[in-house]
Design brief:
The protein has 341 residues and is of the alpha/beta class. It has twelve helices and eight strands. The protein has a single domain, classed as Ureohydrolase domain (Arginase, Chain A, 3-Layer(aba) Sandwich). Helix 10 links the parallel strand 7 and strand 8. Bound molecules: manganese (II) ion.
Amino acid sequence: MNCVKVLVRNMSRSQRWAPLQRVGVVGVPFEKGQKKYGVSVAPAAMRSAGLIDQLKEIEGLDVVDYGDVEVAPCEEKANVDNMACLPQVSACNMTLSKTVSRIISDNRVAITIGGDHSIGVGTVDGHYKVNEDMILIWVDAHSDINTNKTSSSGSVHGMPVALLVKELADYWPYLPTMDWQVPKFSIKSLGYIGLRSVDNYERLLIEKYEIPAFAMEDIDQHGIQQSIKHVLRTLDPESKRPIHVSFDIDSLDALEAPSTGTPVRGGLTLREGICLMETIHSTGRLRAIDLVEINPALGSDADRRRTIEAGLCILKAALGFSRRGTAPRGVLDLPGKINVN
Ligand SMILES: [Mn+2]
């Protein structure tokens, strides 16, 4: 009796959560959330490395390219202490939020190619506006949850999580130009994977709010697959909420992805990154992926190629590419059909 019940429940769940085979890609050539030149070139570099065609090669995947978000020059000055280029960050994210909302409303997985990680404000804001029950998996060497008061750099790419969550709204001063973004997402729906460079105040917040955070030593202990499964179970015990993955390429070890602005050694191997994304794909509930902080201007040609290739592997793993290979559909039925004639 119990076995039958479990089987029926599992069947209905898998029917309900078959992976969405439709994706929309948007590029964000934006780099004002940090200080190094080059991360804005990543969408063009990813496209010329074959991003769209490689996604189209995944069996059954319907890919639409929504182009790049227009990043208008922003002359507006807004004086907020220790927060560089806030008006530019704000303007870009406002447009991006609308685009991500549109892609998800079109019943597609939103794939956003950054750009620096400040664009996570726009992608999560846009996703949340369509799916208020979404959970957020932040895959990163850093926790990106500083405010302008705790940041040592003043770069907004270290602050997007703190801007997004409602529980930290009171930690911020009034932010001119940011009125469009009202933080409603709850810190209780956030989990981390890959941490290994966390500031003191960031650690305080992770502990205060009991955020499921798997730093590299936790991944060493439990393995990547059990780590992500634990985070997903903690945030969503009933396995029913849409998933947003914000993937910073610096979560990978600097040997795997050297062309990035703030590399940290001792990170995820590419295989762990692939396994992580395959596990998330297998839930059928992935609805948005950000791939950020690839900087093709840093390092040698080989570094640049290796980093872009790693990014492509991560995206493909998230969208159903199988390392085992995929047999063409229907071919095994052919002999029977041929015999009819
Ligand atoms: Mn980041």
